Amino acid sequence: MICSKDDFNLVYMAKPMYGGWVSFTAHLSLKYNLPLFRITKRDEKSYRSLGYGCPYKNQCISTISKIPNILITAIDKNYYKYLDNIPDGSYIVIHDPTEYTGKSKTILREHLKRFNIVTIREKVKANLLDKYNLKSIFVHHPFYEFDLEYFPSKLKGSISISRIDYDKNTDIIVKANDELEDPCDIYGFPNDLYVYRKLSKTNFNDYYKGRFSKSFNVVQELLCNKKFVVDMSSIKNDGDGSQYTFLEAIYLDCILILNSKWVGEASIFKNGTNCLVVGNSEELKQVLNSKIENNILENSKKLLIPHITVNWRLDNLHLKFLNITKNKIIDS
Questions:
Q1: What's the rounded Cα separation, in Å, for the pair 127 and 237?
Q2: Reduced to 3 states, what is the DSSP secondary structure of residue 116?
Q3: Given CA atoms 248, 120, 93, 130 in this order, what sign does their dihedral have?
Q4: Residues 15 and 118 in one domain
């Protein structure tokens, strides 16, 4: 891919190479064929792989700062030192409140005042405005319709493919598994501190199947014979909307089981209609032991449509920000 002058040039300014930030960046780059860069000490001529078949190129900050139409797909504290080099009016995606809340994020919040902020969940948009008076536009997660190589076969059992972390509440799944004849398979990149503090004295290792490659084919292979995908995510001042584990599960014909702390009254997810909602390990156990025979999966497919049809092109987002200045914020 070449550096675009008429559309976005994506810059991934974060250290993690697993999780939602990476998934978002890959889906966005692949869906719209947008070039992707990371910041390093020197320019590189060859491309590297972010995963999911998404290439990127390492460039030094002096080169990055001259690139037009920058959209920062994610940022963490390791890259704050480069923010002074990012031009005014650049675009930045904020995924959840943990990215901008607290004293340590003051530097980022100051820079957000001169950037065009894009949020991918309504709750985050509202929290940014209410708590820090930072206006943003809400745009649905972009979903790249990757080719389907595997197709459902047995349609039984359950799986979790989220990170193993505090905000993913993996301990709820472990506790439920202890009383299930057919335990939920747990995959994902582990936070070692969370594993030590919350899971070391449990039967976690009996259910943990390890990490998996950042590949759409691998995701398909894991999910193709499962009936349920369990995701116990909960983040303060976030929720109601989607994550990539949700969208990929629906795309691959799995019924979602979500945390009640994620699904509020305004949520697009409705218990018993397009997903199943549980609040603790006992409820999760009961759901996984039950026989679900209704149109939940069919209804959930409708949730994919806004993510497939969403327009993340520069001209469209630019128009949305013009409407902010006129106090006529148009949501995607």
A1: 7
A2: strand
A3: negative
A4: yes
Tens-digit pLDDT profile for residues 292-307: 767 999 999 999 999 9
Share of the chain above pLDDT 70, in %: 95
329 pLDDT more than 60 = no
CB 55 within 8 A of CB 276: no
Same domain, 40 and 164: no
Residue 152 and residue 225 in contact, taking contact as beta carbons nearer than 8 Å: yes
Tell me 29's DSSP state: H
Q: Quote the number of domains for the chain.
A: 2
Domain holding 218, by residue range, is 158-306
| Closest to 126 measured CA to CA, from 268, 241, 26, 1 | 241
**Is the domain of 177 the same as that of 317?**
no
* Cα–Cα distance, 127 to 139 (Å, whole number): 15
Nearest to 214 by CA among 27, 47, 57: 27
Quote the CA–CA distance of 317 and 312 in Å, as a whole number.
6
Within a domain: residue 45? yes
Return the amino acid letter for 226.
K
Distances (CA, A) of 228 to 142, 192, 198: 23, 26, 24
Rounded mean pLDDT of 66-91?
97
CA distances from 89 to 46, 73, 114, 150 (A): 29, 15, 6, 43
Residue 67 lies in a domain: yes
If asked whether residues 195 and 89 sit together in one domain, one would say: no
C-alpha to C-alpha distance for 107 and 282, rounded to whole angstroms:
43
Which alpha helices (H) appear in 208-257, and where do they start and end? 216-223, 244-251
CATH of the domain at 82: 3.40.50.2000
Assigned token pair, 61: 């900050």
**Whole-angstrom distance, CA of residue 254 vs CA of residue 276:** 11
276 shares a domain with 292: yes
| pLDDT the model gives residue 149 | 84
| 135/231 same-domain check | no
